[in-house]
Amino acid sequence: MKRILVVLIVLFPLVAKAQKIATTFKDAVENKGLSIEKLDGDYQSALHDDSTKAAFKGQEKEFYDAYISLLRDLGTHLKENNFKWGKKTRCFNRIYINKDGGIDYFLFNFKPEEVSSEKEMEFRQHLESFIQTYKFPLSNKVNFAQCSPVTYLDE
């Protein structure tokens, strides 16, 4: 019994860290116990106005292309899972990616009344599924984050 307890104590931090979260900014703070300030401190800005603070300094075009690829791959995932927006849908995303290219946190925010709560929940479920296995096309020496407004639409 002691051995099992020791193994669980040793492995728990690894399992807890492996959790990937897709949620709204509000839910992240109020229900998941996340701090945006802490996340922003733990993940360097991928691109930054001050290039000395950018994780992809000198690779801006490559990063931009990879980020667009991520959004397209998400759109493909949604389409393959029969998710339909029904109209142009504006959203703001902040994506936290580990140095190996795995998405740790994908936070999003729709404008008020942009989507129904049911549509948001369905999107969140598909997004959670997507980030479990998705690998960002570029890796880095540090964890990094990128935010942007996005307009989702059905193809």
Walkthrough of the structure:
Residues 1-18 form the signal peptide. Keywords: Signal. By secondary structure, this protein is an alpha/beta fold. Helix content is 43%, strand content 21%. The model is unreliable at 3-17 (pLDDT under 50).
Strands of the widest sheet, in order across it, are 1-4-3-5-2
Quick one: overall form? globular
Strand content: 15-25%
| Fraction of residues in helix | 40-55%
Low-confidence stretches: 3-17
Q: Strand-and-helix sequence, N→C? A: HEHHEHEEHE
Tally of individual domains: 1
Using only C-alpha atoms, the radius of gyration works out to 17 Å
Largest sheet: 5 strands, mixed
Mean pLDDT: 89
Number of strands: 5
The number of helical elements comes to: 5
Return the structural class.
alpha/beta
Whole-Å distance between the termini? 55 Å
What's a concise summary of this model?
Keywords: Signal. The chain is of the alpha/beta class and 155 residues long. It has helices at 2-17, 25-30, 36-42, 60-80, 117-133, and strands at residues 21-24, 44-45, 89-97, 103-110, 144-152.
Topology:
Blueprint: H1 2-17, E1 21-24, H2 25-30, H3 36-42, E2 44-45, H4 60-80, E3 89-97, E4 103-110, H5 117-133, E5 144-152
